Each structure stands twice: as structure tokens, then as C-alpha cells.
TrEMBL record:
Residues in Radical SAM core domain copies: 132-371
PROSITE patterns according to UniProt: RADICAL_SAM (PS51918)
Gene3D superfamilies the record matches: Aldolase class I (3.20.20.70)
Record's keyword terms, sorted: Iron, Iron-sulfur, Metal-binding, S-adenosyl-L-methionine
UniProt name for this protein: Radical SAM domain protein
Record's keyword annotation contains Amino-acid biosynthesis: no
Organism whose genome encodes this protein: Rhodomicrobium vannielii (strain ATCC 17100 / DSM 162 / LMG 4299 / NCIMB 10020 / ATH 3.1.1)
Length: 406
């Protein structure tokens, strides 16, 4: 999971990088045509794959890179905002972030993995089936549909259905078969690009969800030859909790059920589908605790979208979950295009840095290992994972998978 070489920068500099990462996540970054032509996403640099949510500020019909590294090794997902004050430009053969004409940092884009250039046995581009995340994580979004939409009850921060509508099949948004997932997992493991994978999607009726996840696990095992493929099944809290046992028996090492918000009042308003259709907030919490009994301490995760409810509520939830053996975590709320909350604003970067530092402290206090908080998350590239890396000197120097174009 980590490389031998460690970041050469002192911790104070790494904290500065982390603040820059938070800012680039919240406000996005622009990129000049020269820089984009130079890094050539989908050829040299790893390109974005639109799975689940469009995270850019605007829908686009050209390729954009998936992410880049800052000098100390902190990785930043590329979030395009042509109006951002931070602009990635070309300086000779260096790609740099500038702000008001001043250089802020040099950046290195992520190299396109080999399996992105391969096809599945039925002719699909593998890059459209599974996305490689930073730090050796593979992510499968089997579908971009959420059935809550039919009743107008999709979560107000979510743009999953909108992303499907605007990008569609030609950009790789279609229902993935278990075989396609198995083949892509095998190619990524064969390339030694990953050591963890996640299977996720929108909400589908629970019998269908269970059967699909079992078929996917079987296909991954068959194609990779791995019985334990270190997989996370991201699911809705099933009304019949015995289904959680089935996910475990199928070979998933971890599971995730995202409760999204801790305050029940906010939950009713922001997540009406989850509140009314899937057993409600209390049932989700009950299911998470049940899952710890099945998968074990530190092997169940629940995410919250932070920045909508008061911070003290989110922290209360993170504490409660951790004490029950659940890795509670959060994502930075980006008011995405097409979501009900489009046009709203996230809190400032320092708000998130503070929450991330407290989250990391909660994880450590409750006895989770770095391996556990990595395995159960789709990507261990969050601010809270980075803080753990900075504190414990786990941050790799610019990684081999960074693009060297000089
Ligand atoms: S449950 Fe909510 S967050 Fe999840 S896919 Fe559906 S609308 Fe989006």
C-alpha cells in the first residue's frame, strides 16, 4: 500500500499541501489548453471516468485528467472549474498551479494505467468499467441509477441520475455485467495496480441487489483466482439483515452502508428516499451495527456528506459509529451540477481540515488500523487518510505512477 520512498518535505509543508488540496477540492481548478494538450488525458495522463457522480463544476464533452500529485506526494482529484482562481498551466515542460500569476505548486498528473487501454471479451473499453483511484484502489460503479428518483426522493446532494442523463452510454455509463467486472479486476491485479476494490451503485430493489453482488463476487474470484479479493460491497441497509451475512459469505472482506447525515431532521429533508423507503435512519444504524457482528470491527464503513449539517452533529455521528466498530468517515460536500443543492456553497477549507483531523483522531482512539480504514473505503485518498499518512510518516514521495513528462 505504501512505497519505500517517503515524502521529502517536512510535516509543516505537508500540512500546507493538505490545505491546498482542500481548497482545490472545494473551489476546483482551471487548466489551460497548453497544459491539457501537454498531458493528453486518455493517452498519457489517466482520464476521468464518469462513474456515479459528475464532480466537475460543469458538464464537458472533452477528456479531462483524473488527478495529480503535489510536490510532497499529496494526491488531488482533478475537479474542473474554468472560473477558479487556481489555474494549471504549462511552464516549459512543467505543469504548475498559478494563482494571480504566481506559482503555487508544481503538479504531476497520474499516469494512465495499462489496463485502461484493454478491452473486455465483449469489446468494452476497460476504462469505462472500472476506475483506478489513487493508492491502489479500483472502483466499479455497476449502474448510474437510483430508484429513489422515480418518487422524487433522491438525496438532495446527489447527481447520480443527472450524470447518467448527460453522459450516457457513449461515456461508459451503462449496467456492467459481473463478467466485465471480473475481467477488469483480473487485468488490474495482473498489472499490480491495485490491492483493493469496491463495488457500488445507486439504490436498486434489495433482492436484485443481493443476487447481483453475489454474481459479481463469483466472477471476480473466477477471473482473478483470488478467494479473498479485498472487496467492499457498498449496499443499502437491507430490510432483511440476514442478507448482510450473504455478502460476507460471498467473499467481500468489508461492507459499506452510507448513512450520509447524523441529524435526523436534516436526514428527513435531504435524504427522503433513505428516510422513507429503506427502513429509515434508525434501521440504517441498526444494520451497520449488525454488520460489525458479521464482518468484524473496522470492516464496516459508513460515509457522511459533510458540510450540510452542523459539524458537531457529524462529529457526534463519527464518534458513535467508531465506538460501535464502524469506520465512520466523511466526504467533502461539492454542490454538484444537476443536484438539488447545485448553487449552494461548501464550508471553507479550514472547516474540513479541522473535521478531518478530528476524524483521524477518532479512528485512532477507537483502535482502527490504517489498513482497516483503507480497506473499507472506496479510496483512501481523503483528507483524513492524508492526515494519518502525514502524522505517521506514511506519505510516499512522488509516486512511480505520476507522469514524468520533462
Ligand atoms: S441513495 Fe441518495 S446518494 Fe445514493 S445514489 Fe440514491 S440519491 Fe444518490
Amino acid at each position: 500500500m505504501t512505497t519505500e520512498k517517503r515524502s521529502p518535505l517536512p510535516k509543516s509543508k505537508l500540512w500546507e499541501e493538505l490545505r491546498l488540496k482542500a481548497e482545490l477540492g472545494i473551489h476546483g481548478v482551471a487548466i489551460t489548453k497548453q497544459a491539457l494538450d501537454f498531458v493528453r488525458p486518455a493517452e498519457l495522463a489517466q482520464e476521468q471516468v464518469h462513474n456515479l457522480f459528475e464532480m466537475d463544476f460543469f458538464v464537458h464533452d472533452f477528456e479531462l485528467p483524473s488527478g495529480y500529485d503535489l510536490p510532497g506526494g499529496i494526491s488531488v482529484p482533478f475537479r474542473w472549474n474554468p472560473n477558479s482562481a487556481n489555474i494549471i498551466d504549462l511552464d516549459g515542460s512543467r505543469t504548475i498551479i498559478t494563482n494571480k500569476g504566481h506559482e503555487v505548486a508544481e503538479v504531476r498528473f497520474h499516469k494512465r494505467p495499462g489496463f485502461y487501454g484493454l478491452k473486455t471479451s465483449d469489446g468494452q473499453d476497460m476504462a469505462t468499467i472500472g476506475a483506478l483511484y489513487r493508492h491502489r484502489a479500483l472502483f466499479f460503479a455497476y449502474s448510474n441509477e437510483c430508484s429513489y428518483k422515480d418518487r422524487g426522493e433522491d438525496c438532495a446532494f446527489c447527481n447520480i441520475n443527472h450524470t447518467k442523463d448527460v453522459y450516457g452510454e457513449k461515456k461508459g455509463i451503462f449496467w456492467k455485467t459481473p463478467r466485465q467486472i471480473g475481467e477488469v479486476a483480473a487485468a488490474a491485479f495482473a498489472e499490480n495496480a491495485v490491492d483493493h476494490l469496491t463495488v457500488s451503485g445507486g439504490i436498486i430493489p434489495e433482492r436484485r441487489e443481493l443476487e447481483y453482488y453475489l454474481d459479481v463476487a463469483e466472477a471476480i474470484q473466477e477471473h482473478t483466482g483470488l478467494q479473498d479479493f479485498n472487496g467492499t460491497a457498498v449496499v443499502a441497509a437491507p430490510l432483511d439483515l440476514r442478507q448482510i451475512d450473504r455478502f460476507h459469505e460471498a467473499g467481500y472482506r468489508t461492507t459499506a452502508m452510507n448513512i450520509e447525515l447524523w441529524d435526523k431532521g436534516f436526514y428527513e429533508t435531504i435524504c427522503p428516499g433513505k428516510a422513507r423507503t429503506s427502513g429509515g435512519w434508525d434501521h440504517w444504524l441498526h444494520a451497520l451495527k449488525y454488520a460489525v457482528g458479521v464482518f468484524g470491527h473496522g470492516r464496516v464503513r459508513s460515509n457522511m456528506v459533510a458540510g450540510i449539517e452542523p459539524k458537531k452533529k457529524t462529529l457526534e455521528g463519527l464518534e458513535h459509529l467508531a465506538a460501535a466498530g464502524v469506520v465512520g468517515t466523511f466526504s467533502v460536500w461539492c454542490p454538484n451540477p444537476g443536484s438539488e443543492l447545485e448553487g449552494h456553497r461548501s464550508p471553507v477549507p479550514e472547516w474540513y481540515i479541522d473535521l478531518a483531523a478530528k476524524t483521524t483522531a477518532i479512528w485512532k482512539k477507537n483502535g482502527f488500523t490504517f489498513q482497516q480504514v483503507s480497506d473499507c473505503n472506496a479510496s483512501n485518498d481523503s483528507l483524513q487518510h492524508d492526515i494519518w499518512r502525514i502524522e505517521d510518516d506514511l506519505l510516499p514521495s512522488l509516486q512511480e505512477s505520476s507522469l514524468e513528462l520533462a
